[in-house]
Amino acid sequence: MSKGGIGVGSASIVLVFAVLCLTIFAIISLTGALSDRALVEVEADLIKRYYDADTLAETILAGIITDGGLPDSVMGVEITYGWDYDQDVDTLSFTCPISDKKEFLAVVAADGSYDVLTWRMRDVGEWEFDDSLDLWPGFGDDDGFDLFPGFFFGGDDDDDDDDDDDDGDGGDGDGGFPFDDDFGFLFDE
Length: 189
What we know:
The mean pLDDT is 78. Helix content is 32%, strand content 18%. It has one helix at residues 8-67, and strands at residues 73-74, 77-78, 80-84, 89-97, 102-109, 116-123. Strand 1 and strand 2 (77-78) form a beta hairpin. By secondary structure, it is α+β, with helices and mostly antiparallel strands. The chain is elongated. The N and C termini lie far apart (86 Å). The strands form 2 sheets. The chain has a 4-stranded antiparallel β-sheet with strand order 3-4-5-6.
């Protein structure tokens, strides 16, 4: 007697496959949520530090305005004086630290009006060039690396300048770029 329908073995295989797929999707979702949470925590900390520095800058500016003078430092923050050529006015400026890579810059007119000229966050420190990746430098390099050896610049690698034009293409006869005699200045180093 023969049974019709799906057997117990195939149903078990489908069930195991479905559970495996759901488990993989759950792990991927959890990993994404954890990385998003870490990113949000870093951003929230930066925003908190930004507003702390902004509050300190407001307090310093209020101290300068109420004292009426031009001090060298307020609340331990050094005040520098300069000239804004765009606004044609004397300026006072100070910075409040946000993190080791960012600071809050305040530039104010020192003419008694105390108009705010600059009030923003900026990056601190020098930018460092990262050349750790080993990238392909292009054609004509001296490193010995050739993506298409003998294809564009001829088949022989010797530097003899004999013009053996055996194939009649106008080149030097090495089977390379057909116009290397006419346009050789483009490829010479």
